[in-house]
Design goal:
about 375 residues; alpha+beta; 4-stranded mixed sheet; 3-stranded mixed sheet; 9 helices; 15 strands; about 25% helix
Length: about 375
C-alpha cells in the first residue's frame, strides 16, 4: 500500500476541519467501496487507502502525530506498527464513523426523530364550458382531506388510555438493520417512526388519530385554459404528519364539447349555412361568437367551403395578450320542403340557366374537363 499523503488521499487541505474531512471520506468511501465495485482490485486498494487516511485524520491524537512526523509516526518504535491504525486491514468501519451516516442521507434515517412525511398530492377533475374557458371562472370544489379525530383528539388511543413507548425501537422511531458489512437505520416497522405503540386503539379512527372528511376549495380558472390542462394549488393536498407540509392539489380541467364551436389552439371554427341566393348575390348575415352575434358580409358568388375570418373573436392566450380568430366555414344550403311557388321559380331559373356560359359555372367546367381527360 502506498504512503501517499493522507490529506491528498482524501482531497482536502492540511487545515481542513473535521466536517470537511468527514464529508470527503463519505464521498470517496461510497465511490470505491468493494460492494459497489465487485472484482475491481484497484477500487479495493483505493478504498483501503481512503479508510486508512480517514482513520488517522479523524483521530485528534493520530492527526497531531501525523502532522508532526508524517508516516514515520506509525512505524515501529513510534506508533506501534500497523496496530497504530487500530488493526487496519479489512473492510470494517473507520474509527469514529458509522456507515449508517451515509445511508441515512440516502434512505432518510431519522436519528431517533419522528419522521415528518409530507402529505400526499391529490387530483380532482372539474368540467367547464367553452365560454368559461374563454373568459375564466371561479369554481368551488370539494376535496377529500383529514381532520383530527374528535374522540381521541389525535392521540390514536382509546379515551382513558395512552400510547406506550414502542417495544421494538424503544421510542427512537428507527431500528438498525445490518446488511453485509453495513449498518443502516430504517423506520421502525412496529410504530412506523412515531416511537409510540398503541395497545388499545381508538374505535373511531382505529389508531390513526385522524378521520377522513372533505373541504371546499375555490379554484381560479384563468381565461384561455384548454382541455386537458391542470392547475396546481400548493399546500391544498393531504396534510402532512408531525408538522410536515401538506401536499399539493392538482385540478384537471375538462372543457365540454360545444354545440357550435370547435377550438384549435386560440382559434375557433364553426359551420356557417347560407342560402343559395345569398351565396350567389352576396349579402350580410349574422354570425354567432362567444360574446354574442356580429354582422358578416358574404361576397357574391361565394362557394361552399369558403372560410370567412372574424378577427379577434377567438380565445385569449393564457400566457400573453394575443387573441385568436373565429373562422366560419361556409356551407351553401339546399332548401327542403319547398312550396309550389318556390318550385315554380326554381324550375323557371333552371330553364333560363340552360346553356349558361361555362365561365358562369367554373366548378362544373373543371369537373367535366377532368372527366374528359380521364376517358380520352
Amino acid at each position: 500500500m502506498s504512503n501517499q499523503d493522507f490529506y491528498a488521499t482524501l482531497g482536502v487541505a492540511r487545515g481542513a476541519s473535521d466536517d470537511e474531512i468527514k464529508k470527503a471520506y463519505r464521498k470517496l468511501a461510497m465511490k470505491y467501496h468493494p460492494d459497489r465495485n465487485p472484482g475491481d482490485k484497484e477500487a479495493e486498494e483505493k478504498f483501503k487507502e481512503v479508510q486508512k487516511a480517514y482513520d488517522t485524520l479523524s483521530d485528534k491524537e493520530k492527526r497531531a502525530m501525523y502532522d508532526q512526523y508524517g508516516h514515520a509516526a506509525f512505524e515501529q518504535g513510534m506508533g506501534g506498527g500497523a496496530g497504530g491504525f487500530g488493526g487496519f486491514g479489512g473492510f470494517g468501519g473507520a474509527q469514529g464513523f458509522d456507515f449508517s451516516d451515509i445511508f441515512s442521507q440516502m434512505f432518510g434515517g431519522g436519528g431517533g426523530r419522528q419522521p415528518n412525511y409530507q402529505g400526499a398530492d391529490l387530483q380532482v377533475g372539474v368540467e367547464i364550458t367553452l365560454e368559461d374557458a374563454a373568459k375564466g371562472i371561479k369554481k368551488r370544489i370539494n376535496i377529500p382531506t383529514y381532520e383530527e379525530c374528535d374522540v381521541c383528539h389525535g392521540s390514536g388511543a382509546k379515551p382513558g388510555t395512552s400510547a406506550s413507548t414502542c417495544s421494538t425501537c424503544h421510542g427512537s422511531g428507527t431500528v438498525h438493520v445490518r446488511q453485509a458489512i453495513f449498518q443502516m437505520q430504517q423506520t421502525c416497522p412496529t410504530c412506523h417512526g412515531t416511537g409510540k405503540e398503541i395497545k388499545d386503539p381508538c374505535v373511531k379512527c382505529r389508531g390513526e388519530g385522524r378521520t377522513k372528511t372533505s373541504k371546499t376549495v375555490e379554484v381560479n380558472i384563468p381565461a384561455g385554459i384548454d382541455d386537458g390542462q391542470r392547475i396546481r394549488l400548493s399546500g391544498e393536498g393531504e396534510p402532512g404528519t408531525h408538522g410536515a407540509p401538506a401536499g399539493d392539489l392538482y385540478v384537471n380541467v375538462r372543457v365540454k364539447e360545444h354545440k357550435i364551436f370547435e377550438r384549435n389552439g386560440l382559434d375557433l371554427h364553426c359551420e356557417l349555412p347560407i342560402s343559395f341566393a345569398v351565396a350567389a348575390l352576396g349579402g350580410e348575415v349574422e354570425v354567432p361568437t362567444l360574446d354574442g352575434k356580429v354582422k358578416l358580409n358574404i361576397p357574391k358568388e361565394t362557394q361552399t367551403g369558403r372560410r370567412m375570418r372574424v378577427k379577434g373573436k377567438g380565445i385569449k392566450s393564457l400566457r400573453s395578450s394575443a387573441t385568436g380568430d373565429l373562422y366560419c366555414h361556409v356551407v351553401v344550403e339546399t332548401p327542403v320542403n319547398l312550396t309550389d311557388r318556390q318550385k315554380e321559380l326554381l324550375e323557371e331559373f333552371e330553364k333560363i340557366s340552360t346553356g349558361l356560359d361555362r365561365s358562369q359555372t367554373p366548378r362544373k367546367k373543371s369537373f367535366w374537363d377532368k372527366v374528359g381527360e380521364l376517358f380520352d
